[in-house]
Amino acid sequence: MIELSTDLKRLKEQLARLRGDTAVVPQGTVVIPVNAQKDQTNVFRVLSDVGGYRGNKQLEIILVVNNYPVDTLPHEVELYEQIGLKVIAIPYVERKGEIAIAARMHGIRIAQAEVVLLFDADCRIPDSTALLNWYLARFEEGCDLAYTHVDFTDLPLDITVKTRRWLHHASRWFRRNILRMPTSRGSNYAIRKQLILDLFAQGLIPYEIQVGPAVKALGGRIAYSGARELVVLTSGRTFSQGWKPLVSYMIWRIGIYRRILKMKPKKAIHDQ
What we know:
Layout: H1 6-19, E1 28-35, H2 43-51, E2 59-66, H3 76-82, E3 86-90, H4 99-109, E4 115-119, H5 128-140, E5 145-148, E6 150-153, H6 159-177, E7 188-192, H7 193-201, H8 211-217, E8 222-225, E9 232-235, H9 243-260
């Protein structure tokens, strides 16, 4: 048994309150993949944010710890479980496409709730009460996918990085408002559990950026909000400084749009 610090004892109490009566199915399940090589401590920040929820909904949290040696289970797993979290530990995630979504699926499969809320370990949620209530309200209205604005934290102070941030937001606005394609991303969206399981099993979403277009192609109901109180912050630690990375990013972004435009609408979800 690990001796908990005062902060972790407080977090344990918050998570117990968030989950509520374990005999009752929660309204939502939060799933967070945790890369054992870099996110073992980062995740406590977003857990604290979620634990600060002050609404009347019950939510469970599942962590999917991955990317560690087969014979060396991270000691943090015991700590996560001790503070009341569900944990799946997988040394290596097999996938065809992106590791993040493949890891996330392991947690989604055991989620008790019909609605799964998906964040990353390096996220920050400034107002979890407003965000989580907004998400759950959208699914009560019959939505299949919902997402809100994502901004960055921990960005390097460099002109090329600032330019990339501007281009990132501008391109997402263009995609959402001109191309009429959802811009949900792995660090912040919610979706119906069975829907994302089906899309993944059919090979339609090997990359998380394809979730929104896939749901739209099926005729799903989608909600978006850019409200300030609903923003989620994701780490900009992977942003490389310099003009060459910036040009590479622009080429990559253009390639994404070309692939998105090839997606054609199919039979609506609600007609199946």
